[in-house]
Amino acid sequence: MTNKLISTDKELINTFKAMLKENEYRSQDELAYELSIRGYENISQSKISRMLSKVGAVRTRNAQSKVIYQLSDELVIPRVDCTIDTIALSVKNNGTQIVLKTGAGGASLIARLLDSLEDSFGILGTIAGDDSLLVIPSDTKMINDTTMKISTLLGISSH
What is the DSSP string of 86-153? Predict the structure, then answer.
């Protein structure tokens, strides 16, 4: 077995996330033990705690009502097999709100993207349906600018 004491933090975090996806762990001791089996020796409880926080793991109950560590679904980045401009179809505003149309099932993906940009695009928040997205601008006086930024980002025309 190769000693991974000199491995990078990125490798350790990737291994840690893979462990949480593959198996259920009830304690930080179980996580430390599994890491040692995988060649990551001498990982302290405080390091495990920091890694749990870093990857967004939460304690939750499984189907048998046992408390386990699990990656939070909120932090999982959605993956798509096509470019974003094939999902977003159109964007327009009425002076107070912005509506974005997407292909079926695409609204939540675009909402996550726009929510991550918030202030830099003048976005207060979003509400996603299946194929429509409501974007609330931070300032209605700047709504045309916000609409244009979204349009440019997504590679679609604004009306």
Answer: GTEEEEEE-SS-EEEEESTT-HHHHHHHHHHHHHHHTEEEEEE-SSEEEEEES-GGGHHHHHHHHHHH
pLDDT single digits (tens) 119-144? 788 999 999 998 999 999 999 999 99
Q: How far apart are CA 71 and CA 59, in angstroms?
A: 9
- Encoded amino acid at 14, one letter: N
Please tell me the pTM assigned to this model.
Answer: 0.51
Note whether residue 2 is domain-resident.
no
Q: What is the CATH number of the domain that holds 133?
A: 3.30.1360.40
Q: What's the total number of domains in the chain?
A: 2
Taking alpha carbons only, the member of 41, 44, 6 closest to residue 28 is 44
* Neighbour-count burial for 135-153, b at 16+ CB within 10 Å, e otherwise: bebeeeeebeebbebbbeb
Q: Is residue 3 part of a domain?
A: no
Range of the domain at 122: 84-154
